[in-house]
Structures are given as C-alpha cells and as structure tokens.
C-alpha cells in the first residue's frame, strides 16, 4: 500500500507533504516528514492508526515536540501531531486533559478550579501526552504524583484505559514507552486548595525557572537524565563545557544541562554536541550521562 493513498482515504484530514519538522520542534531543527497530519479528535487518531497498522505504513506520533530531536533526514511514513486535541476540563477534584493539551494550560485550569497538586508543572513546556509518556517532572514533583488514569490507543487502534498502577511510572518512564502506545487523554486527581496560594507557588516556580534556564533561545529542555548521586548541570559545568559550541548548537551559559540553538543549528549539531558532552563527562568523572530528550528519525544521507 502506497502512503499517498492515505490522502484519498481520509478526505476530511489535511495532510502536509514533505513538511519540515523544524517548524514544530522546540529546537527549530529536524528534517521533513513524508506526510504530516494534525487530527482534531481521538476517533480520527484511531482511524489513522488502524489504517497505517493494516497497511504497514510507518507512523510516528508526537505532541508538543519540546523534549525531542528529529534527525536531519526526517521521518518516513506518516507523522501525527496531537496538538489540535487540546480540550481540558476540571470537574470536582479531577482535571482531564487531551494528550495535545499544553501542560502549562492544564496547570492553569487546575489553579482556576482551586485544585492543588500540579504546581510543579506550571512551567514545563510539553504536552499532557508527552508528560505522561515520560513521567515529566520538576521541582520535586512528577506527573506520576497526580495522574490517576490515562486513555491510550494501541498501534492497532484499540482504546485502553490504564490506571495509575498499570502506567508503571518510574524516573522519566511509563509503561506507554515499553508498549509503544499513544496517549489520548489523562486524568489528574488533585486536592482542594486556595487559588491565590496555588498561583503564588506557580509564580514562584516560574520565576526560579526564568532565572536559571535559557528560556529565550530554542532548546529541547533538559537534555540528560539526572545520574544517581549527581546533578547533570553541575557535572557539565565542572567539565568546563558551558559555551562549548558545535555548529550552531551550544551548551547554555545559563544552565549547562541545556543545549541551545544559537546560530541556525541542525539536529546533527545537537546530536554531535550531546555525544561530546557524554564523552567529556565520562572521561573526567566516570559518569555515564543518559539522554532524557528523545532522538528520532533518520540521519541525513
């Protein structure tokens, strides 16, 4: 089955051919998708997954692309971006959000409903789906602390609802990674709080983030997982790497755990710099830095 047929099979969807993924990634890098679609409903995602599964068409599903590097050769087959699915609803002590909803907007909905428990995520730039997928965290909080269930789709297009235990959360990990499933929505169960106090905590954490992180330059967020017994930024700092540049990508002077796009960087610049940082830190301190950022797609031929 030729992928081109997908355009006629789904006349209600808008497919973008040879679409530069640099338009969507937070690093502003990445090659082209053969075909890209931004569905608006979970039923549309289900139909697309079923079709690609039954016709053995490669499919890649991404959210806000904030903690993602797409290699310069791009992605073959179909890329589904979920950011058009962004409904958020607060009811009682729960907030339910679509996978494509902004995590920051979700924390705002919780605050408006006087619900506490998501303040730690007030500045995390990812989508809800991506946050659940990787158990995103900051300032001592993790998504696993608040999520009680998630609706997912299998690659064959079957809906499943997973409870907290079935999501098998770990550090930057969930069962969704192991089972190659697609988050469709997530429900957070929170506690009643004071809206002003919640806002004050969110403001405080966002001020800390702005003071310490290079928010004004394109980046993929925190590049590496935290090694046991160490702080990643401190290791990279002590290795003398802040400001070190490969191509247009540089280790941030503001926070050494970030790589920023300072001059029309390519994904290859990012990946080469990641490997260099890993090599130097291993040589100097004997510590293996493992990437937190997801690296997908094909190298440029």
Outline the structure in words:
It contains eight helices and 19 strands. The protein has helices at residues 5-9, 42-54, 103-112, 128-134, 175-179, 195-212, 232-238, 267-285; strands spanning 15-20, 32-37, 59-62, 68-70, 75-81, 88-91, 94-98, 115-116, 137-138, 141-142, 147-153, 159-163, 182-189, 191-192, 219-222, 245-246, 249-251, 258-261, 294-296. The model has no long low-confidence stretch (mean pLDDT 96). With 301 residues, it is α+β, with helices and mostly antiparallel strands. Strands 6-7-13-11-12 form a five-stranded antiparallel beta sheet. A four-stranded mixed beta sheet has the order 1-2-5-3, with helices on one face. A four-stranded antiparallel beta sheet has the order 15-18-17-16. The chain starts with a helix and ends in a 5-residue tail after the last strand.
Set out the fold topology.
Elements: H1 5-9, E1 15-20, E2 32-37, H2 42-54, E3 59-62, E4 68-70, E5 75-81, E6 88-91, E7 94-98, H3 103-112, E8 115-116, H4 128-134, E9 137-138, E10 141-142, E11 147-153, E12 159-163, H5 175-179, E13 182-189, E14 191-192, H6 195-212, E15 219-222, H7 232-238, E16 245-246, E17 249-251, E18 258-261, H8 267-285, E19 294-296
Parallel strand pairs: 2-5, 3-5, 4-19
Antiparallel strand pairs: 1-2, 6-7, 7-13, 8-14, 9-10, 11-12, 11-13, 15-18, 16-17, 17-18
Compose a concise summary of this entry.
28% of the residues lie in helices and 26% in strands.
Q: Count of DSSP E strands?
A: 19
Total helical elements = 8
Note the main sheet: 5 strands, antiparallel
Distance between the termini: 25 Å
Average pLDDT value?
96
**Structural class estimated from helices and strands:** alpha+beta
Percent strand: 25-35%
State the helicity in percent bands: 25-40%
Trace the largest sheet across and list its strands: 6-7-13-11-12
- One letter per element, helices H and strands E, the order comes to HEEHEEEEEHEHEEEEHEEHEHEEEHE
Low-confidence stretches: none
* Overall morphology: globular
C-alpha-based Rg, rounded: 19 Å
Oligomer: single chain
């Amino acid at each position: 089955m030729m992928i081109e047929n997908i355009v006629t099979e789904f006349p209600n969807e808008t497919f973008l051919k040879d679409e530069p993924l640099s338009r969507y990634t937070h690093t502003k890098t990445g090659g082209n998708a053969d075909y890209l679609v931004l569905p608006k409903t979970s039923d549309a995602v289900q139909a697309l997954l079923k079709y690609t599964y039954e016709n053995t068409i490669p499919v890649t599903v991404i959210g806000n692309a904030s903690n993602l590097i797409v290699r310069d050769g791009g992605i073959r087959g179909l890329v589904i971006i979920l950011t058009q699915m962004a409904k958020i609803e607060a009811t009682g002590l729960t907030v339910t959000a679509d996978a494509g909803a902004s995590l920051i907007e979700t924390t705002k909905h919780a605050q408006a409903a006087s619900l506490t428990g998501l303040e730690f995520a007030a500045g995390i730039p990812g989508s809800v789906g991506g946050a659940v997928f990787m158990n995103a965290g900051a300032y001592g909080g993790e998504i696993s602390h608040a999520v009680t269930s998630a609706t997912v789709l299998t690659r064959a297009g079957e809906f499943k609802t997973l409870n907290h235990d079935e999501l098998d959360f770990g550090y930057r990990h969930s069962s969704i990674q192991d089972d190659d499933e697609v988050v469709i929505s997530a429900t957070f169960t929170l506690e009643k709080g004071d809206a002003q106090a919640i806002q004050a905590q969110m403001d405080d954490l966002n001020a800390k983030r702005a003071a310490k992180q290079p928010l004004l330059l394109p980046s993929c967020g925190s590049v590496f997982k935290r090694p046991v017994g160490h702080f990643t930024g401190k290791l990279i700092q002590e290795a003398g790497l802040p400001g070190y540049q490969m191509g247009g990508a540089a280790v941030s002077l503001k926070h050494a755990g970030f790589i920023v796009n300072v001059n029309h960087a390519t994904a290859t610049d990012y990946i080469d710099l990641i490997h260099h940082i890993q090599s130097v830190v291993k040589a100097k301190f004997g510590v293996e830095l493992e990437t937190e950022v997801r690296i997908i797609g094909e190298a440029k031929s």
